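Supplementary Note 3. Input sequence used for the single-chain structure prediction.
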Amino acid sequence: MAIEVGQEAPEFSLFNEANERVTLSTLRGTPVVLVFYPFAFSGLCTTEMCSVRDNYDGWIAKGATVFGISRDSRFVQAAFKKQENLNYSLLAATKGSAAMKYGVWNEAAAAAERATFVIDREGKIVYAIHNGFSDARDHSAVEEHIK
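The predicted structure, written as discrete structure tokens, is reproduced below.
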């Protein structure tokens, strides 16, 4: 079951594409957007992640820190970020630990489902989208929840 609006955002500590540790609790005081996706370089994932890059500068303008999270290694994340010129950090959750904590891990596929969470400055989930593998997300409502 996915984490719901109003709940405390589950803690995680993962490495980004530059091999820097990112721990969610150290970002308190800053809104955070987590964009879980199944696999780097796959068709729909690439489309969605590039859409975040191209259409949602308002998230960052409102002070949000944005992370893409998949089960890919930091090396794959680095190559994906570079190839697609992504303007936000990608986190490597190779064993799905973060996706499991957020209730979006698909054991049969060994990957995260498509899910986006907005976390407020106090660490609470204020918005969530959770779609299956083949269903693209509509991120148009995310920005209004970043405060």
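Helices lie at 43-55, 57-61, 74-84, 97-101. The chain has a mean pLDDT of 95.
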